[in-house]
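Readers of this paper often ask what the protein records in our data store actually look like. An entry from our holdings is shown next, in its original layout:
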Amino acid sequence: MALFTDGPISSIEDLTAQDSQLLNVASVEGIDVTQKIALAQEQVEMDLIGALKRLGWADQLLWQSPRPQLDMVVITPSLKLWHTALSLNLVYADAFNSQLNDRYAGKRDQFQELARWAYGKLIEIGLGVAGTPLPKPAVPTVTPFPGTLADNLYYVTMTWVNRGGQEGSPATATTFAATSSTFLVEPAPAPTAATGWNVYIGLSPDAMYLQNSSPLSTGQTWEQPASLVQTGRLPGKGQMPDYLRPLPRILQRG
């Protein structure tokens, strides 16, 4: 699972899975769905920051442990659904305010209620927390190098690994067109929690396989050999939470 700070919690595809008419409504009414997703993320972030601050008081009384920070929050299903529903609520609130159409009002209210339900589940289940969070890496640098790799277009991504063997979210994939050569993969500077990294390469964005047999050191550059691993492990979706932390009830937006 991705961390809250890795980027947008939900995608347009997540929103259309909840409402198949979304893109048509957005086109007709001139609504920027990406902007609504960003606004919803800002609102969720403000609510979570407030909750985490209040959690600090509870820690002093009950847990006797440092309170989690925003960059430790893992996107669990209830948190993702909260953000998705809030994004849709903002879309239909905008559409209703533009046209005063009762059909849009019904959708606005539907997703407001779904956001409240998902928020309640987040309170009930707890906030997912990664004890040693690994942020999504920057796109790795890929450069040509003398070698005999087969001429082709290769897709490349990477992940950070921590001391406990956990793996973070993969970087946005980049490509390299090999012509009578191979290539080097170099990661950006490692975050504090990272003790190593993995490299995934393939012939399509949906088939990038783990190439290294054990994690590479954070300062190590990967030289792709002539043989490409084309079976095995694909990049995951990020860290699972180490624990779920109960949240104090916070103001529900939307």
Summary: The CA atoms of residues 59 and 170 lie 32 Å apart. Strands lie at 127-129, 141-145, 152-162, 174-178, 182-186, 194-202, 208-210, 222-223, 243-245.
